[in-house]
Amino acid sequence: MKKVTMQQIAEHLGVSKFVVSKALSGKGGVNEATKERVIQAASKLGYFNQKSGYVKNTIQPGPMATNAQGKSVVVLMPNIRYQNKESLYWGRLLEGISRELEKQGLGMIIVTEPNSDNYFNILKPEAILGMIGVGQIATSPLLEVHRIGLPIVLVDHEDPLIPCDTVFANNLDGMARITNYLIGLGHRNLHFLGDLSFSRSFRDRWTGFRSMLEENGLTPQPSDDPMLWLDGIDTGSYSEKLLNWMQLRKKTKTMPSALVCANDEIAMSVCDLLNELGFSVPTEVSVSGFDNIDVASQKAPSITTVNVPKEDLGQRAVKRLLDRIADPGSPKEKIMLSVDIVYRNSTSGNVEKQASKNMG
């Protein structure tokens, strides 16, 4: 394969080689829009598939007992306001990472502000084994980590431009199974609620929902449906938009018999709003969630959901990172952990009564 050079990238974009070099070096001096154009072009042309596309790896492979003493793993969590130890989802995942690192005798450094160039300069690369990225992360900080030669494992996220190992729960399969369960209860009018721009997991959950409806001869909502783009998932600011949608559905007597939510937080909000509008859950509308956060079982009614092994995701990411360090030339892996349905009280099969009430 012919080597892709910075000059070729520059010619492809109509910029100077100097601009390309600056953008790919992570040294600053190039605005974010230009940097993103360069990264996209470099990926398209195959620049990052070459070993020369990055700085030589500063981590030397070998037995962990020899190389890991006194070293730490960076955990990159950009959305620290919500992805933190108090979070019912991310906190458990972080706990899994912390527990496994402690078991391996390694330290943990949490980085929460990756927006500035060379944010790793504040650390000592020789004291860092690698990085675990948690949740949605922009390409630029990942490129900076790759540039200095640190191995990366991403949890609940993947970047098409940065080849690395990833760890996911099997979101597609889990959502397909809970959707199939609802269809088995007799539901034929099901609606998905979430934000497809929020995370890769949400997009996979939508795919699982849609595929199961199609498999059963049912028509899913169109991709421009406003309930697929609920802004403010982390903050709950989507509630007003959701309430307006429900009020219209009530007025037109078109409320679906089952509302399939992208996570438990949405499902609990949906139950509150349905109750506010006079709908009984699950007698009139069934509601399902995803993630199995602790409070989902305490809700009245308790939320039927999909259990995501949150701590196991974190532990598996650490193990995969150590395997990558020990064998840097091995193929990249996308690891999927199995999930299970948790059957609770927010769903039922009383569909004939639901249809009569909701459709008028």
UniProtKB/TrEMBL annotation:
Residues 4-47 form the HTH lacI-type domain. GO terms for molecular function: DNA binding. Gene3D superfamilies: 3.40.50.2300, lambda repressor-like DNA-binding domains. Transmembrane segments: none annotated. Keywords: DNA-binding, Repressor, Transcription, Transcription regulation. SMART domains: HTH_LACI (SM00354). InterPro entries: HTH_LacI, LacI/GalR-like_sensor, Lambda_DNA-bd_dom_sf, Peripla_BP_I. PROSITE patterns: HTH_LACI_2. This is LacI family DNA-binding transcriptional regulator. It comes from Paenibacillus puldeungensis.
